[in-house]
Design goal:
Blueprint: H1 2-33, H2 51-58, E1 75-78, E2 91-94, E3 100-102, E4 105-114, E5 138-144, E6 150-157, E7 169-178, E8 181-189, E9 202-207, E10 215-216, E11 236-243, E12 246-255, E13 262-270, E14 278-279, E15 294-298, E16 300-305, E17 314-318, E18 325-329, E19 338-339, E20 351-364, E21 371-382, H3 399-403, H4 409-425
Antiparallel strand pairs: 1-21, 2-4, 3-4, 4-5, 5-6, 7-8, 8-9, 9-10, 11-12, 12-13, 13-14, 15-16, 15-20, 16-17, 17-18, 19-20, 20-21
The structure holds 3,6-anhydro-alpha-L-galactopyranose (AAL).
3,6-anhydro-alpha-L-galactopyranose binds near residues 95, 236 and 290.
């Protein structure tokens, strides 16, 4: 009797299970049979979805940009306090470092070129004539109490004597704070940029205070790759963060052939700021972008990836600091964005994100006056603010912005030829 009841019980249970599965499947099919709902569900609906809708719920922090913490627009403010010699091309400031807050002041370091002439190209360059906007440059710094009005303090890193790394130019620096000391990493040129390419390794100087004095290590700390490797010629835009108890230094390299350089970003880690640095076996870790811009976010690392590559104009995120996925797509991104990252060196397990920084505008002044200027950008890529103005879906450009992107003579000729052929063929 007992056994009979037990068999009936078990059979009933499985019949019910099948029915409920059937019902759930039926409901899902009914759900799928119905059109997608008018109001976009916050959570991924249990229905068959297209690849785009799967991606919307699987790849982004939220299905709507305005709720996506790693989506933002960018706003720009001209800086006060810098003299550019009336834009004649003899003074240029570019490639700023991350901002550091110390003694109630913000600090920024940058590439500073003050030459008798604007850049003249590699062929015409010599000991006083620069080949490029960053050739014959030094690293200078400025301070500010509000991030808008800046006071230039002067040189931080001078060009060392030949043949020490950086004798031709020291550029494109970034700051690390580690165990109470400060380190400035920078590109150390040993030939005029543009001879073969923009070739240089990375060097470093250290100090007990952001005001220096800075002691050059006078050795290469991030060497170029072996022959045939992706980073064999250039280690650019060194960008250190403290993550998982180590120094995570991201960098860019130019690969491929002119004029279609391929820019990608790599990672090198170390337990000591003076090295040795170990390059990630997975390099490159970001397939697009140009100058490096990254910050701790939640348990991972986020990256601003702008011009160059299929994934330009994206904000990316790697939970492990290595494997980056697209977190949002945006526009009018700051070039060479150097954010104020309050937790850049605290080895945080919960990165708070960023709201502002310094970037640059390049190729200003036109022919014979080429120079760059520093500019402030603001955004909302932070867990601690919620600024809906930064979460607008698009930037409304005036028509002249579009018309300035006009057709070239060659393009107009092609179109005229096509029209003529079309007319003939009718
Ligand atoms: C910048 C940076 C590096 C390059 C050059 C100056 O955009 O990537 O610094 O060397 O251009």
């Amino acid at each position: 009797m007992m056994k009979k009841n037990y068999v009936i019980g078990v059979t009933m249970y499985f019949v019910l299970l099948l029915v409920s599965c059937g019902t759930a499947e039926k409901e899902k099919n009914n759900e799928s049979a119905k059109a997608f709902p008018f109001m976009l569900p916050d959570e991924k609906p249990d229905r068959e979805l297209s690849a785009a809708m799967e991606r919307l719920y699987d790849d982004y922090a939220a299905p709507k940009p305005e709720e996506n913490e790693l989506f933002s627009q960018f706003k720009y403010t001209e800086l006060k306090g810098f003299n550019y010699s009336d834009g004649d091309g003899t003074i240029s400031r570019r490639d700023p470092s991350k901002i550091v807050f110390h003694n109630n002041k913000y600090y920024v370091w940058y590439t500073y070129r003050h030459t008798s002439t604007p850049p003249q190209g590699a062929k015409k360059s010599n000991d006083t004539i620069p080949s490029s906007d960053w050739d014959l440059a030094e690293i200078w710094y400025a301070t500010s109490t509000d991030g808008f009005n800046w006071e230039e303090q002067g040189v931080a890193i001078k060009r060392p004597k030949k043949p020490i790394v950086g004798w031709r130019a020291v550029t494109t620096t970034d700051i690390l704070e580690w165990k109470g000391k400060y380190y400035l990493y920078y590109q150390g040129f040993m030939e005029a940029s543009g001879k073969r390419g923009d070739d240089c390794p990375v060097a470093v100087s250290y100090a007990d205070s952001p005001d220096g004095p800075w002691t050059p290590y006078n050795k290469i700390v991030i060497p170029n790759g072996e022959e045939g490797e992706w980073d064999q010629y250039s280690i650019h835009d060194p960008y250190p963060l403290v993550y998982k108890g180590k120094i995570y230094l991201y960098y860019k390299s130019d690969t491929g052939v002119k004029p279609h350089w391929v820019r990608m970003q790599g990672l090198a880690t170390a337990d000591n700021p003076l090295g040795p640095f170990t390059k990630s076996p997975l390099n490159p870790v970001i397939s697009s972008g140009h100058e490096t811009s990254l910050f701790p976010f939640k348990q991972g690392i986020a990256a601003l990836v702008y011009k160059d590559g299929n994934e330009h104009n994206t904000i990316q995120y790697a939970k492990d600091g290595v494997n980056f996925e697209i977190a949002s797509i945006t526009e009018l991104m700051p070039y060479a964005a150097a954010p104020f990252v309050a937790d850049a060196f605290t080895d945080t397990k919960d990165g708070r994100g960023i709201t502002w920084g310094i970037s640059h505008f390049i190729n200003l002044g036109g022919r014979g006056k080429i120079h760059s200027k520093l500019v402030r950008f603001d955004c909302d890529l932070s867990q601690d603010i919620d600024d809906p103005e930064m979460k607008q879906h698009r930037v409304n450009h005036d028509t002249d912005v579009y018309y300035r992107q006009g057709l070239s003579m060659k393009q107009k000729a092609r179109i005229a030829k096509e029209n003529k052929e079309l007319t003939k063929s009718k």
